[in-house]
Amino acid sequence: MRILCLGLFVLTVAAHAGESDLRVLIDVSGSMRQNDPHGLRIPALKLLLELLPPATRAGVWLFSETPENLISLAPVDRQWKNAAGEAAQRIHSRGRYTDIEKALQTVIADWEAPGEDRHIILLTDGMLDVAPDPALDSASRNRIERQLIPRLQALGARIYTIALSDQADHHLMRQLAIATDGWNETARSAEQLQRAFLKIVQKATPREGLPLRDNRFTVDANVREFSLLVFRRPESPATELIRPDATRWSAADHPDTVHWHPEDGFDLITVDQPMPGPWQLAARLDPDNQVMIVTDLQLKTAALPNHLAAGETLAVRAELTEHDRRITREHFLGLVKFQLLQKGPEEVQKTLIPAPEEAGVFSAATKLEKPGIYTFEVTVDGKTFQRVRKQRIEVLALPVATEVIPPRAAGEPLIVRLTPDPERIDPATFEAAALIASASDPPREMPFSSGNEAFWELPLSAPEAKRRLTVNFHIQARDREGNPLQVHLRPIELEPSQFQTHSTEADKAPQPTAKPIDWLWSGLIAAGVNLILGGAGFFGWRKLRQHARQRQEQLLNRLTT
Fold first, then answer.
1. Helix (H, G, I), strand (E, B) or coil at 343
2. Sequential DSSP letters for 118-185
3. Which residues on adjacent β-strands are paired with residue 241?
4. What pTM did the predictor assign?
5. Residue-number span of the structural domain to which 416 is assigned
6. Which of 3, 90, 279, 448 is in Cβ range 3.0-4.6 Å of 432 for a Cys bridge?
7. Which of 185-199, 371-385, 418-432 is predicted with the least confidence, judged by mean pLDDT?
8. 8-state DSSP, 496
9. Dihedral of CA 419/423/426/427: which sign?
10. How many domains does the chain have?
């Protein structure tokens, strides 16, 4: 059986478990005097800092030839945000070089083992530049591609890059983003930079939201806090927020329970214990305006992969939870409607239906044929409450198809096959190599070989230790007109099981006879220990479970009456 790396991506329901780790790198090289003469980085960084949720550990570094910590790495709270906002004023443009390699190495120095929920935002305006000698620049780039990217992958870090000018190293920025399943943005103005930071922080630290339609949204009694982001243009009138009782608030006139943060280009308004009912925003309509909330009644969806190949299918799954417990009560879920709105080159609206294998989970599948940027919006309407989550992905028109062919028999290698699109690539110019690494082994480079010009293959034997392998691709090719192509293929991961056949000689060999176990005495001993140590824990667990179930029943009864 052959496994094509084009297929079905099943997105299991998940939420960020634990603390997100976000590290921001800001370029302060001298070229920023031309590309950011008005200090656009400062208000944009302030927006990013204000949008970070509490369950985040964050820090900011400035970099040119030597990285400098601007904002200490620490848990995010109001005190940290206030101090970070003041520190952002120290962003400058006095550096000499743009040493991206050293900047990335600095911010990951304390990551010694693989982890989850790790994110790095890299903002730069120029090419990689470490010294006057171009050979040193080339050597640094080579180390990033062949050593640092595999290291970032092994650590579980995603890189989000923002290019602040057309002179930025777009090839390297895109390579870093695709290799780590991060994201790549280009910003040419203050407004674009703020929105680029918004898109990236939404990916790194996604938050619960309320649907905002025609500047109106409805707050239910389960919302403890909401934050409203409103983008403004220079000619826009002052933003006003209208409560359900018709009281009007503004940046100049609002109660102490409201935190109103005005900056050039946006307002961020946080309301604690908001009044339930319909709210209205008096401001210019903007598709990026949004309402983020803190609540125990949550819509949870899985994070989408940031990059897919054209032709792949997404299976989107969603659920409602209360205090992180999935809601499965049929009567309540019968009153709730889950919708998927797909925007982009192909626009689709679907109703999520109950997943047959899991109570309380709703799903829908969508196939993505056309390349481009897509937005997926999952909403739930429970009549007395609404929730929304938005995610963006890029569908890539890859000029090379990737295929994994399992071993044909025991002892034979697995085959990784590359098939260039003959209409887009001149096969005579095609050269490919794989950079193979694991969490504990250094990367090793292996070339692909071809017996013809239709496909190129690389045989791989099973690693001695059963480790997952990550395969990155380095490709050189030209199109039919002779122009060089920049080919960014997504890396593939090979599990130890993929190196096995369905039936091996080891499976057929007789298994050694185990020494008989005296099950009577073992059972008596285990029962006594469990009775002594587990009794109190069992009754405590049962009491907590009953309390959580009663609390959820009370909430559902309130929502359905």
1. strand
2. EEEEEEESS--B-SSSHHHHHHHHHHIIIIIHHHHHHHTEEEEEEE-STTS-HHHHHHHHHHTT-EEE
3. 249, 281
4. 0.85
5. 400-502
6. 448
7. 185-199
8. G
9. positive
10. 4
